[in-house]
Amino acid sequence: MKIETPTWVKHAVFYQIFPDRFVISQEPRKRLLKNPTWEDWSAPPTQQGYKGGDLWGVIDKLDYLQDLGINAIYFTPIFQSTSNHRYHTHDYYQVDPLLGGNKAFEQLLEQAHQRDIKVVLDGVFNHASRGFFFFSDILENGPNSPWLDWFKIHDWPLSAYDGDRPANYEGWVDNRALPVFNHDNPDVKEYIMEIAEHWIKMGVDGWRLDVPFEIKTEGFWQEFRDRVKAVNPEAYIVGEVWTDARQWLDGTQFDGVMNYLFTGPTIAFAAGDRVVMDYVQNPSYEPYPPLSAPAYAAKIQAVLDLYPWEIQLTQLNLLASHDTARLMSIAQSDRASVELSTLLLLTFPGAASIYYGDEVGLAGATDPDSRRGFPPESDWDLELLSYHQQLIALRHAHPALRIGTYRSIYAEGSAYVFVRTLDETEILVAVNVGTESVKVSLDLVALGLKTRPERQLFGTAELSWKQDEAAHLTIDLAARSGCILTSVSPKSLETEIVGGTTTKPISLT
């Protein structure tokens, strides 16, 4: 079976937005509340408080996202709900009025698409909420409700709020606020399929699927893919699966998953013993002690070996999300750890995803602290922002960094080097996560490289070239730094090698 995935995702840099915390619009518009009681924007976020971010505000920030180099947005849930995170869905056909409702979303979608920015929504289809109309009807009418078989009712009476009594229905992770759908009911399945089709027909570019592994109904996700792809073959379907996802990535279900198998080892390598273990042990991605370069190379190769290449190119790679602590806090505010991780992220196969605010140094421990308000410009780390902009621009400028093959060619101590190859283009990426400078000597011919890397696209490494019967490149990497190298032209190394020994510096232009 030939696996087909959306072409645009292979070239995407996503920006994940938690709408309540990104920005409050400043333009005068009709609002649901005249005097809202929002939490203070800069105060530590709480589990139940709202800060008032809206989709009009996202529209106001589209120029900022475009300047950053973003060409896709992943929104955490936007549908009507009674929670700031909106994973407690009330109505799958209505954008939450606190976010601006359907009108705001339609304008956002239109203006994003005018900028060639794709929009992917969060689909919470395993469970609804106590306020979901069909479940509310059961609470009101008991066994007389026509919606009984839509949920997993065990006994009567139901107790939706009183924790001293058994709930008597299945809630996700035993949370009675989140009644689980009965996906074996054909009506439930059809309802969810129609929701998925509806928003794709409205112009949405894909679905991120919340806890899809909880839905056990045979053929459910295969039908979901068929229905969505029938509306838009280029729609992106990405699942929230934190571990080995091969059973969903066979080409008949998802195009990719949130690639936490990349996240864990990358942070462990780049941040090393700076990692606050309490921040990485509770989430489901595997926490590691500090990784050496050889250990990191082995972990990354294992990730690359898991899935077909076509799937690798549409994985959603990330360093943080609304479900994890932010990298700045995980690494104890060590900017170099963030920078090195970001360099590895933006040179890895697959779509890159940046969690809102990470690009300006926003900190945050585990939920709810990882869901802070996007900081005012006066609090931005402008050097970190520039770092992101440069790397994103390079990724967009060089197809090899997006769809080129990936091969590790050096891993010793704290130094790791890999090459991305597309046709005759070869791009070398080298990082040193250690606290002392290192010299990396590469016999390029022996390593199978075909071109001469004489141009430094990124970084400030010192480079030298020695030609004899082989071709040796030496990269002098400062502590906690990285670089990206490529050839000026695809001239064969073999034609450069002459008798005798010569040494000359490589041009950095």
What is the number of domains? 3
Instruction: Please name the CATH architecture of the largest domain.
Output: Alpha-Beta Barrel
From the 3D structure, determine the CATH topology of the largest domain.
TIM Barrel
Provide the residue-averaged pLDDT. Answer: 94
Give start-end ranges of low-pLDDT stretches.
495-509
What would your notes on this structure say?
It is a single chain. By secondary structure, the chain is of the alpha/beta class. The chain folds into three domains: 58-127 and 185-399, TIM Barrel (Alpha-Beta Barrel), CATH 3.20.20; 128-180, Oligo-1,6-glucosidase, Domain 2 (Oligo-1,6-glucosidase, domain 2, Alpha-Beta Complex), CATH 3.90.400; 401-505, Immunoglobulin-like. The protein has 14 helices and 19 strands. The strands form four sheets. The protein has an eight-stranded parallel beta sheet with strand order 8-7-6-5-2-1-10-9. A five-stranded antiparallel beta sheet has the order 11-12-13-18-15. Helix 7 (260-271) crosses helix 12 and helix 12 (335-345) runs parallel beside helix 13.
